[in-house]
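help with this record:
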Amino acid sequence: MLKTKRMSIVPTFVCTLRCRLCSNHMPEFEHPPKASAEEMMADIDALFALFDHIEWLQFVGGEIFTHRGLDEVFDYCRRYDARFDRLIVETNATVLPTEAELRSLLSYGGKLKVMISDYGELSKARDAFVDVCEKNGIEYVLKRYHGDPESQHFGGWIDNTACRDLLEPDDYVTRQAAQCAQVRLENMHVFRGKLHRCSNSLFLSELGVCVPNRGDFVDLHDGTPPEEQREIIRRFYEYPRKSCHYCTWKSGDSAERFGAAEQERRA
């Protein structure tokens, strides 16, 4: 039996903000890719062919609500309703869901949870989004990322923007990677058929600066027998991946914190 705690589906790398310390490297994508609804639905089928149960089925970006077509995908997830515990959507509250997307989300009732990254005045739709949640009984969390950095969620942001091998000793990388929050949460990410053990592995791979080693990810649609894919997934967190050598998050408990969401100037 194969289970995981978190499974993040990435609809789009398009973001409405250009945060200087974006840990997912969104400003680095000159032409941010996005997955079609058909690609996401194919990935969802492939995931549930491999996993018996997923605690949180998440949609993360970029800003997911720039992808105008998620209602079809949210509806499609219902066919696997008995095999995941919560449907989680993450947003920076700059864009509201469409009426169709909201109707689809509301159909999940108490299974739905909205995670709002609150960037103060940058999150221009925050109050409207909170109002929608409260009027419809949607559970939501506001993660405060403005004001004094010490009062921000997680104490502010970590600078994970080096996009290069940090040349740290292997034993240090092994030790720190084993304690990484992404490992503790089993927070896997999938985009266009590529299943990675964490967001940094996925986004650095898509950026082309860290080509993953064999076994660092699973191609859901390459014809590899399912049991071979499951075995790779079972070993995702047994040892560091190539991306761990590029990552500051693994030292998150001691890493310097910075104020969130400082915006880059657009050219």
